[in-house]
């Protein structure tokens, strides 16, 4: 292919869409990981080139009445969990489902199209898009163009469905919304104006070189500190120095921890440097330089600090799992809010990029002269947050705190890069990734090796992105959600903290714990990878300040209504770090044992090895009313029930209902009358196998209307577990067939899934 490389002068001439009356489009997305948002970005670019006046936003940022104000609405949504709507659609979906809207035909004038993203490995594939489509039609809206459902499991991922659908959709737009005579679509090789505004703010001219000594002396006294811009510049010089600067960084962490500045003289003329600075022993760097703990003004965010960050798996284990403890400050309002969540809460963490990655990007793009100057961002994406301290952000700040420079590059990003290189070969190579028929090549270069944006830009050194375009090109860092793994009394065990911040923040921290499995792996090209949040959490030091959010978990609150809910038996199924929300639920139920009879709890826990990933295994024997059936798929020994000490005594006296011969799967299938397909789990021990082995006991609990909580990895596990429960209901004659078994689980059991 031959691509015409535009001259810089021609590239500077932006192709602006023409304002045409009655030609408007809203592109609304629901996304957990950013894939649906990327599709929405591409569709908006296409619509702007067809001269539509566009608005792209999360569904939750759109009112139902706003749907009536545009010519056409395009919905792009993924499905999360087991058929759930994404988090940033829940308010919109709640409003759409209001009962008073039924039979109202309130969306009669609305024309819409839907594109869904899903994974056919899940039980409810593309459920969110299907539910949305049905509800819009119920309210009278008209489907302008056929819906499509992309599948992550296809050879070329979602592109196999998306790319043909996009071209057909474009043709339908031109047919039903023809352009006026003399107006043509804007070609893909012409640059559109930026959506967002970024401008480097003017600053004072730097001092001449011969005044540097005077400048240093001027700012050397504590009563005459250097301006903020000067301090930032000097700080980044120290951070990027080639000489060993570990001592200087220790000074920085000491300042944060003690609140006392380093290298200043007090009244007694005593130098307060960090003691290790004077040690004769060579100091060694124990980890990468971590991001500065700049706090962001995140809506509904609260101040937190790290109390502990401990690895709970052996160091030679393939997976690094962290038990991280935070003190979270939000006063009585936050305590009340979390209390109402009844052990079902989510902690949202906003990760940061590492300084060496940020500096590499700054160097590649030639931004060194402007990296530490304040920016004017009068128009920016909603998730690009300002600093809590009110200081204007620099380019280095937003690259560290807000923009995901290590994400896998998407098609729209690569297309935009073609405008910012003068190298003909680079332009041709970039366009080759985007050509129809080259989807596999695009996938092999980007997703298959998990190549990052930073690596792509290193491969194309001629690309120089203008500062003014950073908010348009780079994806925004998304928060990561973690199930809180403690509840009950443990939340308020540290109700007074003398070191809590002064001012408006009260000294009543909540103690919040999470269990995080860090994402670390090697790609097809054998290159080590770490997830953005995993890398951030791995080196998150004690006392690090950060801004977090706490929200309720998805789905039904299984602790309501009280006290009936805690009197029900609890059948909990957890695999790996899925034990986190189960532990919180168990601890929360224990809070009510003084006032009511708490139902018995049975936990089926699944892991690989007892001595490597039996998370919180040492706690269970001390919890009253709890019986645990651990099953480890890679261990040789047969799973053994771990029961509370009181039941161990009863067992010795007269036996126990749990002591029954364990049937083989073949014997179970004969008894249940089930003809199984070839079982991929055969020969291994999984939670679903253990549920079938304990069929009579599980059925006994099922008769009493239990709470069933299934937590862990999404995909096959929750499907297999639900199937095992239905097998138990059929085999123990509680129901006649599987269909009736499904109805039993839907109507006579509180069934809660928290999977990811």
From TrEMBL:
Key word Secreted present: no
Organism superkingdom: Eukaryota
Pfam families cross-referenced by the UniProt entry: FAD_binding_1, Flavodoxin_1, NAD_binding_1
Family matches, as SUPFAM superfamilies: Ferredoxin reductase-like, C-terminal NADP-linked domain, Flavoproteins, Riboflavin synthase domain-like
Protein name, as recorded: NAPDH-dependent diflavin reductase
Keywords linked to the UniProt accession: FAD, Flavoprotein, FMN, NADP, Oxidoreductase
Gene3D superfamilies membership: 3.40.50.360, NADPH-cytochrome p450 Reductase, Chain A, domain 3, Nucleotide-binding domain of ferredoxin-NADP reductase (FNR) module, Translation factors
InterPro entries in the cross-refs: CysJ-like_FAD-binding, Flavdoxin-like, Flavodoxin/NO_synth, Flavoprot_Pyr_Nucl_cyt_Rdtase, Flavoprotein-like_sf, FNR_nucleotide-bd, NADPH_Cyt_P450_Rdtase_alpha, OxRdtase_FAD/NAD-bd
Cofactor dependence: FAD; FMN
Annotated Flavodoxin-like domain residues: 25-170
